[in-house]
Amino acid sequence: MSTVNSIHHLNFVVRELAPQVEYLRTLLQSEPIIEDLPTRQVKTARFCLSGVWIVLVQPLSTEGEVARILAERGEGLFLLSFNVDSLDESLETLSKQGIYSDNKGKRQGLDNWTIQDLDCPNALGPILQLCQLISK
């Protein structure tokens, strides 16, 4: 049985990446990995802190999922991703306990992350997802 074993990453949507990158660069005393993801219409900056990724996400257009989230919710934390050893086993175990995946299906995240959003209560705020690190 695979279970949630840690926080993998936290995503924050921002209107403008540069000032937030500078803030976190100073706070965390580390350099981010900055990437343009044209297929997702976003630019990201990732910082790793004790094995947890802090990801800033800036929409590059008014289209796409992240742009919709920014328009509806404003800036801030929008996604919390939990690390699991086996995505399939975890989803099967959770579904037996009444926690289901959303209808988007599994997809490839940044680097070698395979992710699956969960169907979760809006009252919790951010999107919750499971993340499995796939060996390269």
Secondary-structure map:
Blueprint: E1 4-13, H1 17-28, E2 33-37, E3 42-49, E4 52-59, H2 65-73, E5 76-84, H3 87-96, E6 100-101, E7 107-108, E8 113-119, E9 127-133
Parallel strand pairs: 1-4, 5-9
Antiparallel strand pairs: 1-5, 2-3, 3-4, 6-8, 7-8, 8-9
Describe the structure.
The protein has helices spanning 17-28, 65-73, 87-96, and strands at residues 4-13, 33-37, 42-49, 52-59, 76-84, 100-101, 107-108, 113-119, 127-133. With 136 residues, it is α+β, with helices and mostly antiparallel strands. The radius of gyration is 15 Å and the shape is globular.
State Rg: 15 Å
CATH class: Alpha Beta
Main sheet, how many strands, which sense, barrel? 9 strands, mixed
Strand content: 35-45%
Distance between the termini: 23 Å
CATH architecture label name: Roll
CATH homologous superfamily classification: 2,3-Dihydroxybiphenyl 1,2-Dioxygenase, domain 1
Helix share, percent: 10-25%
Low-confidence stretches: none
Order of helices and strands: EHEEEHEHEEEE
CATH topology: 2,3-Dihydroxybiphenyl 1,2-Dioxygenase, domain 1
> Into how many domains do the coordinates divide?
1
Shape: globular
Number of strands: 9
Average pLDDT value? 92
* SS class: alpha+beta
* Total DSSP helices: 3
Brief summary of the model shown:
The protein has 136 residues and is an alpha+beta fold.
